Amino acid sequence: TPTTGDEAVAAGAGDLEIPDNDPAGVKSVANLDASGVVGVVGIQLAITHSYVGDLEISLSHGGVTRSVRSREGGSNNDIDASFDVVGFEGIDPAGEWTLHVSDHATRDVGKLVSWTLTVGTNDGTPEPPPSTDETVFNGAGMMAIPDHDATGISSTADVSGVTDGGVAIRVDITHTYIGDLTVTVGHGGRTWTLHNETGGSTDNLVDEFSLDATGDAFEGDPSGTWTLKVVDGAEIDEGTLNGWAVIVR
């Protein structure tokens, strides 16, 4: 029976091996029988893994994807915890919810043991799902970032077949002190700063940046070459540009 104004619970498949160093990862689906609109979302998650800092974990439903955990925890073993996940409020709770777990470094391996989804529902009319129409153009990755070097590294992505749309930049960087880093992207003679030596001793920069949110909105034709530059401005800590992409929506 669909649940409204209460909590709906569903479990996804478990006992699934997580492929080592493979962004495709493993996906598990929980089918939720509920009505109304989404309120609070939580998951109970059990993963065995010998280096949890390798892992990216996200939850998707109704055209919305939200990060649950992004390469946190370093060399710690295993995850057995509950997480609140925001960003699904107001949409239809019914249907498939997909947990995606991926490993982004070699050597250490693990397994998605189990997971359970709990969704608090409220009365109301669901909002329409967001548009998922986007085109992804990947730039070169797996590039070491020189330590304390103003030259840094540059990687290009070529955009074609689209003539307009909003632009966002996704980056995946492993680094042991992201406060050392400046990340910019350039196109057509313009440059946008995505990250400017913030975050202090936090590990890793895995995020999506809307150019509209930089205060210098992108307008016009996104076609052509985009160049991402990453500079490490301090000594000791080092890292790698694992990958990045231009997203046109």
Features:
5-stranded antiparallel beta sheet, 249 residues, 2 domains, 0% helix, mainly beta
Describe the structure.
This protein has no helices and 18 strands. The chain has 249 residues and is an all-beta fold. It has two domains: 116 residues, Jelly Rolls (Sandwich), CATH 2.60.120; 114 residues, Galactose-binding domain-like (Jelly Rolls). Strand 14 and strand 15 form a beta hairpin.
Biggest sheet details: 5 strands, antiparallel
Shape: globular
Per DSSP, the total helix count is 0
Distance between the termini: 37 Å
Low-confidence stretches: none
CATH superfamily of the largest domain: Galactose-binding domain-like
The overall number of domains is 2
What is the helix content?
Answer: under 10%
Query: Proportion of β residues?
Result: over 45%
Task: Give the SSE string.
Answer: EEEEEEEEEEEEEEEEEE
Strand element count: 18
* Rg computed from alpha carbons, rounded to a whole number of angstroms: 20 Å
The CATH class of the largest domain is identified as Mainly Beta
Kindly identify the CATH topology of the largest domain. Jelly Rolls
The CATH architecture of the largest domain would be: Sandwich
Whole-number average pLDDT?
88
> Structural class given helices, strands, pairing?
mainly beta
